[in-house]
Amino acid sequence: MIIVEPKSFEEIEQMTKGCGRLLVLGCETCSAMCFAGGQRQVAEIASSIRMSKKMSQDQTEVLDDTVARQCELEFLDHVKDKVAACNTVLSLSCGAGVQTMAKMFPDRRILPAVNTKFIGRATKRGEWMEMCMACGDCILERTAGICPVTRCAKGLLNGPCGGATGGICEVSKDQPCVWQEIYHALKRLNMLHYLKQKPQVKDWPVHPDKVVRKDLREVGAT
Ligand code: SF4
Ligand code: SF4
């Protein structure tokens, strides 16, 4: 899932100063899973903003709601009346959700209430690990389902680099050497011959930078 973290309330307060009628809008998918944008966080932020506005004699109304997914246009239909009734939306979704909102409602200011960090999974409650950089050319079939692009500190496709000590990466000293993990996983699966194949060649032209630029051109943004 997409991992997000809340911005500080001071930043949100600054961002929403003088914003007019405001809708605080949550996202029940990734943001909610990260405890940053579900119904509970929407209620907390909306209530803090109301309190802050009241203290500064600001009478503007603050509405709140949550959609299942802000990153898909069809899920935004049920809030279109509320958005129309507001000047600004404070979105508690990832960057994809904020941009989908901005595309769907071009006449409204859409503000981000969270920072989008990476694609990952929870390792324990409240802690997440990066698993994928969305490189556009997945090679997990050759690495026993472990991503060296994301998890090797040097992004090596033909590791290990030889610098690990006791199984620990020489760069990220709190992390195991991912190429050592790949070796053991391939061995367990009887697939060690993959390491003997000619060096892995990656299709860098589909790297995210270029893909993103192409996508933006397609929607006429550049
Ligand atoms: S190889 Fe690329 S697409 Fe596959 S998991 Fe790694 S970064 Fe993600
Ligand atoms: S020690 Fe392992 S994980 Fe760290 S940079 Fe070298 S190959 Fe990559």
Describe this structure in words.
This protein has nine helices and seven strands. The protein is an alpha/beta fold. The protein has two domains: 2-118, Response regulator (Rossmann fold, 3-Layer(aba) Sandwich); 136-210, no CATH class. The strands form two sheets. A four-stranded parallel beta sheet has the order 3-2-4-5, sandwiched between helices. The protein has a three-stranded antiparallel beta sheet with strand order 1-6-7. The longest helix is centred in the N-terminal third of the chain and has 17 residues, at 39-55. It starts with a strand and ends with a helix. Residues 212-222 have low confidence and may be disordered. The chain binds iron/sulfur cluster (2 copies).
